Amino acid sequence: MTTDVHAHLWSEEYLELLARLGRPDLDAHRGLSAGASVEELRGRFKQMDSAGIDRQILSVTPLAPHFQDLNSAVEAARFSNQEYAELVERHPDRFAAFASLPLPHVEEALIELDHALDELGMIGVAVTTDILGASLSDPGFEPIFAALNERKSVLYVHPAGMDAHSQLIRGRSMRWSAGAPIEDTIAVVDLLLSGFPSRYPELRIIASHLGGGLPMILQRLDRQQPWESPQTPEPPSTAAHRLWFDTVAHGDRDVLELAARKFGVGRLLLGTDFPYQSGSAFLEASGFIRDSFNTVQAQQILSGNAARIFSQG
To answer: Domain named Amidohydrolase-related: which ranges (predicted)?
Structure first.
């Protein structure tokens, strides 16, 4: 089963809920045919069939239900998880879903985690690269990752779309072109240097967009780590081989092949970034994998690796 681990769906009802709760910058996510209407789903499935993709694992990121207000976070998380669960129930051969958590509220997030994974049948959790400005390695979030580790579950990490909280990015028309991969890079490097992969060895972490700039700086990290981050328990390159990475690279075969050399083919998972890559770009998202590797390697990325990590829990 060819599985796309990086795909988004936002119903109009969910977008309206976020608007009511005060979420800004929703216009960029509207009008993309990424909703739950019959017409939009029919168009999505047609594109999936054309690309040879059997199943998508849905995530609401970057529109995650992360609110400082507890009630807002809980309401949005419960709504999105229930909606996704119903979609998966109606289309079990086309969809699976990552759960959302009402962060930064840890106690309520643990309650929702149990509900989403045990009662709704979701196959992991999706979070953004930071939680309202707090890093994923913040000790306050440790109970969540410990619970996921105990379950041998999956954590999917996607950019927050918050300009990496940098004034040098904000307002300069580069939030997604440059800001998102910077967010990926910062988040993944922080996980590596904080010892996350060895501390939670049963937690299967998927990083978006090939880890941002990680393939290009992995050797630099190894050389700098002994003096800059001496508390790190293992070389960053060793820790990186404990993670998985989706293949969203906007058709750049050189970057894809570099990631395969750095991480290994066994650590790559098909990602399309639907709906931001649709039409010909959507076809290319799987096609450039088939064009870059031999048949066995391509099938490993398109289906084999996902089957392995989502069946281990």
So the answer is: 4-310
